[in-house]
Design goal:
By secondary structure, this protein is an alpha+beta fold. The chain is about 25% helix and about 35% strand.
Length: about 425
C-alpha cells in the first residue's frame, strides 16, 4: 500500500512538472505570436486588432510598459484619445522607470491645449521621483503662461511677509499674497503687519494699529505723527518732528533726535540726522558714522534684508555688511534685496545682479531691472517693455508690460498694463 502511495505521489509530481514545463514553453511562443500579429496589423493600419493582440500579450507579461505604450500609440492612430490616455496611465502606474510614459502623456496634453493637465501631471511625479531631471526640464519648458487675476489699482506694492499694499485714489489697503483683499483701501497710510500681528495705519490724522481683520487694536496714549512696523522688539515713531524708537508697549527706547528712521530687520535699522544716514544695531546703538547720503529701502521701509544694506555716498551706491563694511563694487543705482536671491544693480548704464556677498552673478545687460524674488524670477526692462527673466538671464515672460514688480511665492506679480496696476498669476512657479 505504501509503495502504491509513493508511486501515486511520484506520478502527481511528474505530472505537475510536465504541466509547468509545457506551460513555460507554450506561453512564450504564444506571447511572441501575439506581438508578431500585432505588428503585422499595425503595418496594415488595422490598429484595433493590433490592440487586441497586444492585450493578449499582456496576459503573459502584464508589467511590460512597452506594450502599454504600443497600445497607447495605436489608440492615438485610431483617434481614440480616451484609450490613449488610459494606456499611458497604465504604463505610468507600473513600477520602475516611467519617465518616458509621463513625458509622452504630458506632450499629448500640451498638443490638446490642456496645459494645466500637463503641469499637474509633471508636478505630481516630480514630487514622487528623486531623480526627475527630464520631468523638471519639461515643466520648466512650459513656464511663462499667466492669467490676469483680481481687480485693478492705482498701485500695488511687491509682497512682503505675505502681503501687498494697494492704492486706490488717495487711500491704501492690503491684499494677501494670493491677491485676496485683507484690508480694504480706506487709510491714508498702512505699514506691514509686525511680529505682534498688528499693522500701523493713519486715518483722518490719527495713528494706531489694526489686526488682519481691520479691527483697531493698539494706540499709544501720546500723540505721534508717525508709527512704524513693530519688529524685533522695537518700532520707529515720530514725535514733534523727530524720530525715535518705542517698544511694544510704547515706552521710549531712544531719544527722539532723528530726521528719519526705518523698522528693524536682521538686527539692523537706519537713522538720519542732519541730512546724513547711519546704521544702528539691535540694541539701537550707532554702528557707522552719519556718512551716507541715502539708505535704500524697500516698498515697506525695510533696509536690511539678508543682513546687508545698500547705501549711497555721493553719486555711488555701495553694499554694506552687518558691521557697516563695504562688500563688492560701487554702483550707479541699485534695487533693494527682496529675498535671498540676487539684487539688481546698475553699472555703465546697464543693470545686472549681485548676491548678498557682493558677488556679480549676472552681467549688466538690461535697460532696467528689479531684484530677484524668492521663486527665482526678476522683472527687467528690454526695448522699453517689462518682462521677467530666470536666473540665467533668459526670459520666462516676454517683455510686454509698461512696468512690473516681482513674483511672490504664490507665483503672483503686479504689472502695469493699460494705465492700471493688475496682478498676474503664473501657471508654473
Amino acid at each position: 500500500m505504501k509503495k502504491l502511495m509513493v508511486l501515486m505521489m511520484t506520478g502527481l509530481l511528474v505530472g505537475a512538472w510536465y504541466t509547468t514545463f509545457t506551460s513555460a514553453v507554450e506561453k512564450p511562443m504564444e506571447y511572441k505570436k501575439c506581438l508578431q500579429q500585432a505588428q503585422k496589423n499595425e503595418e496594415k493600419g488595422i490598429y484595433y486588432d493590433a490592440i487586441l493582440e497586444y492585450k493578449k500579450a499582456l496576459e503573459y507579461d502584464g508589467d511590460n510598459r512597452n506594450i502599454y505604450m504600443k497600445i497607447a500609440e495605436d489608440y492615438r492612430n485610431m483617434g481614440d484619445d480616451s484609450g490613449f490616455v488610459d494606456a499611458c496611465n497604465s504604463a505610468i502606474s507600473l513600477d520602475g522607470d516611467n519617465e518616458q510614459a509621463i513625458l509622452t502623456l504630458a506632450d499629448y496634453y500640451v498638443e490638446q491645449d490642456e496645459k494645466q493637465d500637463a503641469i499637474a501631471l509633471l508636478k505630481k511625479h516630480i514630487k514622487k521621483k528623486k531623480n526627475s531631471g527630464a520631468l523638471k526640464a519639461k515643466l520648466d519648458s512650459l513656464a511663462g503662461d499667466f492669467q490676469f487675476i483680481g481687480d485693478e489699482y492705482d498701485n500695488i506694492s511687491e509682497t512682503c511677509n505675505h502681503y501687498m499694499r494697494i492704492t486706490s485714489g488717495e487711500d491704501v489697503g492690503i491684499l494677501d499674497e494670493d491677491g485676496n483683499s485683507v484690508i480694504r483701501a480706506e487709510y491714508q497710510y498702512i505699514g506691514m503687519f509686525g511680529e505682534n500681528g498688528f499693522a500701523p495705519v493713519e486715518k483722518d490724522g490719527e495713528w494706531y494699529y489694526i489686526d488682519t481683520n481691520g479691527y483697531k487694536r493698539r494706540q499709544p496714549d501720546e500723540t505721534y505723527e508717525y508709527l512704524g512696523t513693530f519688529n524685533e522688539g522695537v518700532l520707529p515713531a515720530k514725535k514733534n518732528g523727530k524720530y525715535g524708537f518705542l517698544d511694544e508697549d510704547f515706552n521710549e527706547k531712544t531719544e527722539f533726535e532723528y530726521d528719519a528712521a526705518t523698522p528693524m530687520l536682521n538686527g539692523i535699522a537706519a537713522v538720519k540726522k542732519d541730512e546724513k544716514w547711519a546704521l544702528i544695531d539691535k540694541d539701537l546703538k550707532i554702528i557707522t558714522d552719519f556718512g551716507f547720503d541715502d539708505v535704500v529701502r524697500d516698498a515697506w521701509g525695510f533696509c536690511s534684508r539678508n543682513g546687508v544694506v545698500f547705501v549711497k555716498t555721493g553719486e555711488q551706491y555701495q553694499l554694506l555688511n552687518s558691521s557697516g563694511v563695504q562688500i563688492g563694487e560701487n554702483y550707479e543705482a541699485v534695487s533693494p534685496f527682496i529675498s535671498k536671491n540676487p539684487a539688481a544693480v546698475q553699472q555703465a548704464g546697464k543693470w545686472g545682479f549681485v548676491s548678498s556677498e557682493g558677488e556679480k552673478v549676472l552681467d549688466c545687460m538690461f535697460e532696467k531691472a528689479r531684484s530677484f524674488s524668492a521663486i527665482g524670477y526678476a522683472a527687467v526692462q528690454s526695448d522699453e517693455s517689462w518682462g521677467f527673466i530666470k536666473s540665467n538671464g533668459d526670459f520666462v515672460v516676454n517683455p510686454q508690460f509698461a512696468d512690473a514688480k516681482n513674483f511672490n511665492s504664490s507665483g503672483i506679480a503686479p504689472v502695469l498694463s493699460e494705465g492700471k496696476w493688475k496682478l498676474i498669476q503664473l501657471d508654473i512657479y
